[in-house]
Amino acid sequence: MRVSKGALTTAVICCAVLAVSGQALGQEIAGLAPSVRPPSAPILTEYPKNRAWYEAALIGVEQPYPASLRFLEDQGAWFTPFIHPGMTGPYDIRRRHAGEPQPNP
Fold it and tell me: Residue 86 and residue 72: Cα distance in Å, rounded?
């Protein structure tokens, strides 16, 4: 395979620009120590949840809310599948997917 001198020069310049831009911004590279949190990473000290957050998290759950949902009070910024739509169709018992056929209760 023959590569033109212009294409090779362009590729080298692009690689150099990308490498320098990452260093200039002080970005960490995750592959070197993925188990270690970089010292410059932001730290969340609180995760305020307003009424809209609770309403979205409790879509499809009727009052009185079961005691098993008290975990929402301690829910932080980490991912939990409970507050996101899951499977569709007959498995969507909380009806989080609007406009799709729903199961017969």
Answer: 17
